[in-house]
Amino acid sequence: MKKIIIYIDGGSRGNPGPSAIGILFCNQKGQKVKEYFEQIGEKTNNEAEYQACIFALQKFKALYGKKLSKNTEIEIRSDSELLVKQLSGKYKVLDEKIQALFLKAWNLRLDFKKISFKLISREKNQEADRLVNEALDASKAVQKLL
Fold this sequence. Notes:
alpha/beta, Nucleotidyltransferase, domain 5, 5-stranded mixed beta sheet, 4 helices, 45% helix
């Protein structure tokens, strides 16, 4: 595994409100390898986007170990302009809550050979978005049962 593409998305219903993340791991050919989705509590959209990035990097390291992490190029694809531009050093981080998440994501970069961030359209991030909505809809189903 020389390069892996990770599609990430975070969403909030209410902003802030119930939030979730969706992550899709693909190989160099774009074939799906793994997918994850999870509810993350009350967050803003931007916090959820950062949580998705952090989760993806931590999950990769946990699954494949330090050695493979150091030898793999990671491309994070996101439809969040804020996240991509901040983690690429093009935008300043002004929000205090985002600063803490930014630092966590930034420091995780040290565990990898190379990480790049690519801004993609929402249309190209539909799979990760679907995972976010799946997690949020599951939350609604549980609430209806109670």
